[in-house]
Amino acid sequence: MKSTTPVSKIKTEFSLENATSFGGIKIFLEYLEKIKLSEALRDISCGKGRNSLFPIYRILLYLIVGWMLGCERLFHFRKL
What we know:
The protein is mostly helical. It is built from three helices and no strands. The longest helix has 13 residues.
């Protein structure tokens, strides 16, 4: 499943007027798209359980991105 908006289409503005603590993540997300990490994780992950909402590869991808944004514990992911 593809994301709803490709990272390359997200607007980039070089000012501090609307800056957040997540400002530099766009470069990292573009890199992850370029190396096709999502597809690689999809190839190595096992199947999705019947009662699960998300496949394993997507959870792993979200954990990687979250850790890069400074989320060290699971409840830190709520602010994302």
